[in-house]
Design brief:
Layout lengths: L1 H16 L3 E2 L5 E3 L9 H4 L4 E3 L5 E4 L4 H11 L7 E5 L2 E3 L11 E10 L5 H16 L7 E7 H10 L7 H25 L4 H11 L4 H11 L12 H6 L2 H13 L6 E3 L13 E7 L8 E6 L2 H4 L7 E7 H10 L12 E5 L5 H16 L4 E3 L6 H10 L4 E5 L8 E6 L5 E5 L4
Parallel strand pairs: 1-5, 8-9, 13-14, 13-15
Antiparallel strand pairs: 2-4, 3-4, 5-7, 6-7, 7-12, 8-10, 10-11, 11-12, 15-16, 16-17
The chain binds histidyl-adenosine monophosphate.
């Protein structure tokens, strides 16, 4: 819980600093909320069951469908754009391994009703500031940014039909996990030809906006110099406008070292339609710390208004592993400000006076503890150390005059005589 509180405190502090409001949803939902919307991978990982009323229910594997359902339910009574966050406990039937558990927590931050990249800028800034808040730097992590829209347009240029795209996305998302041979095999079995596959690899190799333009022009069989063709028609044709605005904003906010364009980011979930991003650690090749993007159709698909949304999820497991590896987890116990050691150790009235002192100190906002049994001095000192007390106050010490207290700072070992108001 100490570790969990550290993560949750950091998450909440950033969410509040960015003006997001906290919400919570139910732990389980109707099974159909996920089927056909979240994508095959996550549906294959569902814990589902039938309740006594014969209803098919599932423990939530993610919060986004619940979020969309709740926003839909409130309809126009909610002022848009809205910025909400939540820290749900989630369940996925995955093989438990490094960075992946079957039960975990995931911070969700989402914006509904903002059509411009202002939403992506807000969320990506929040991710970066949040991770910096935990002590991580641009040497430790990077936000990798891509776009489903650009990918969709590019696949269109390669003559991949629209109805094939979702299954192709699912294969593309697995690329890093399954290796090049299996990747090739799967794409061939989806009906792509070797030439299309080679071009997709070329697309994944693009690292800058000009790279993307150059490639799209080659595909369009236009022999034009990419620096000349940054014109509006071409940019909007392949959905690059949003990406270039996002890049400009992040650069001007000083986040240049914290992100990179990476066209191989596709995201496993089915509902993304625009810019997508994942956060990775730069060191030990762990799994993604966070992932998200824009999803234009989920709310309307679930029966609501047609509203665009953007958001991301950040799991507790990979983040905790990374912070641990970098030595950034808090050490020791939260402790108390004062441990009151009862030197008289005799119960009765003197002890009640000590409890009165504790009460007054707590009323001043200090944390105070003491032995519940008036035991031996040595035992009390052991307890003070064990709970991580910052200082011990020797109650009843004859070294302190009436109305004053002898106090020992446990970190420095220094002993002083203090009046109550100086504590
Ligand atoms: P996701 O990519 O499935 O996205 O999960 C986001 C993050 O949750 C991952 O990067 C990882 O840190 C963590 N995570 C996922 N599965 C596990 C697991 N089994 N054990 C530990 N951590 C895990 C979503 O869930 C989207 N609903 C996020 C989103 C919110 N998109 C828009 N809004």
């Amino acid at each position: 819980m100490r570790l969990q509180n550290h993560l949750f405190d950091g998450w909440r502090a950033t969410c509040r600093a960015f003006g997001y409001e906290e919400y919570e949803g139910p732990t389980f939902e109707h099974l159909e909320l996920y089927v056909g919307k979240s994508g095959e991978e996550i549906v294959g990982q569902l814990y589902h069951f039938m309740d006594k009323g014969g209803r098919e229910l599932a423990l939530r594997p993610e919060l986004t469908p619940t979020f969309a359902r709740m926003v839909n339910q409130k309809g126009s009574s909610l002022r848009k754009p809205l910025k909400w966050f939540s820290i749900p406990r989630l369940f996925r039937y995955e093989r438990a391994q490094r960075g992946r558990l079957r039960e975990f927590f995931q911070l969700n931050m989402d914006i509904v009703g903002c059509d411009t990249v202002a939403a992506e800028v807000d969320l990506i800034s929040a991710v970066i500031e949040m991770l910096k808040g935990f002590g991580l730097t641009s040497n430790d992590f990077a936000v990798r940014i891509s776009s489903r829209r650009v990918l969709s347009e590019m696949l269109g240029l390669l003559s991949v039909p629209d109805e094939k795209k979702p299954t192709v996305y699912a294969v593309l998302d697995k690329r890093a996990k399954i290796g090049p041979i299996e990747f090739n095999k799967l794409l061939l079995s989806e009906g792509l030809n070797p030439n299309q596959i080679a071009e997709i690899e070329a697309y994944f190799g693009c690292k800058t906006l000009p790279d993307l333009l150059e490639l799209s022009h080659r595909w369009l069989e236009l022999d034009v110099n990419p620096s000349v063709i940054m014109d509006a028609t071409m940019k909007s044709k392949i959905g690059l406008f949003d990406l270039s605005h996002l890049v400009e904003s992040l650069d001007s906010l000083g986040y240049k070292d914290f992100y990179e364009l990476d066209m191989s980011i596709v995201r496993g979930l089915a509902y993304y339609t625009g810019i997508v991003f994942e956060v990775f650690d730069k060191g030990s090749n762990m799994r993604a710390i966070a992932g998200g993007g824009r999803y234009d159709n989920l709310l309307s698909k679930l029966g609501g208004e047609s509203l665009s949304a953007v958001g991301f999820g950040m799991g507790d497991v990979v983040l905790a592993d990374l912070l641990n590896e970098k030595g950034l987890l808090p050490q020791g116990r939260p402790g108390v400000d004062y441990y009151l050691a009862d030197l008289a150790a005799q119960g009765g009235l003197p002890r009640l006076k000590m409890l009165g002192l504790a009460k007054r100190l707590r009323a001043r906002g200090l944390s105070v503890s003491y032995s519940l049994k008036a035991g031996k001095f040595k035992k009390q000192m052991e307890e003070a150390n064990d709970i991580g007390a910052k200082a011990v106050l020797f109650f009843g010490s004859d070294r302190a005059p009436e109305g004053k207290y002898e106090v020992k700072n446990l970190a420095s070992g220094e002993q002083t005589i203090l009046g109550e108001e100086d504590l």
